Prior knowledge:
Elements: E1 15-18, E2 24-30, E3 36-43, E4 54-60, H1 79-95, E5 101-105, H2 109-121, H3 123-126, E6 130-135, H4 138-144, E7 163-164, E8 179-184
Parallel strand pairs: 4-5
Antiparallel strand pairs: 1-2, 2-3, 3-4, 5-8, 6-7, 6-8
Pfam family, one: DUF6934
InterPro entries: DUF6934
Amino acid sequence: MAISVKIDFENLYEIEHISEDLRISTFKTELEDGTYLPLKVEISNECHTLLPNVYNLAFGPLDKKGEINDKAQLSHKDYSRVFSTILFDGLNFLNNNKGHYLGIDGSDNARAYMYYMFLQRNYDYLSKYFNIYGLKYYVRITRFGKNQYDNPFDFTDIQPVPDRILKGSRLPPPVMYNYFIFNSKIAE
Length: 188
């Protein structure tokens, strides 16, 4: 995966389809080998049970069942354009849904760290449009259910309240945000 992503809402892929409620869109990304692959961006219909008004934003290619494969490893020709398109879709949704937040899941530690570095490298640009928060291990709890509370669960390994992510903020060990929450500054 590329780590030098530069977010720019003037450098987007053309949206091929967008739902009336702005929750689903599709566009084609160009891969390094010159082929094009459709990607889907989908915002959940229901908010998270533990975080009111936070709706999950998922993206990726579709698997054989027609579901988004958010763990796919693709070699995009232009990572900046891909992530700019995804975040711009999210911004459009937020600007039309006052009081809503979007959450993006770093499905593993490597991806979560990459997302965090994207946010830091693009902070000046993104902070014009979004307030950005990080949450530690929220996703792990909601994925595996109550059996996570059994011993030897380490309760110091979670953070129940989102932190505001600011420019240059560092992750002191053992903090690793793996869920990133955005709201629009325009729709505040």
